[in-house]
Amino acid sequence: MKTVLFYCPQMEALAKKIVVARPDEIELGSITWDRFKDGFPNIFVEDVQHAAKRRGIAFLASFDTPGDIFEQYAALHALPDYLEQSLQILLPYFPTGTMERVDELGQVATASTLASLLSSIPPSSGGPPELVIYDIHALGERHYFDRRYVKPRLESGIPLLKEQLAALEGFGTERPMIAFPDDGAWKRFHRKFPGYHDIVCQKVRDGDKRIVTVKEGNPAGRHVVIIDDLVQTGGTLHECRNTLVAAGAVAVSAYATHGVFPEESWRTFTDGSFANIWITDSCPKTAASVSGIAPFRVLSLAGSLAEVITD
Question: Domain 158-280: which topology?
Answer without folding.
Answer: Rossmann fold (3.40.50)
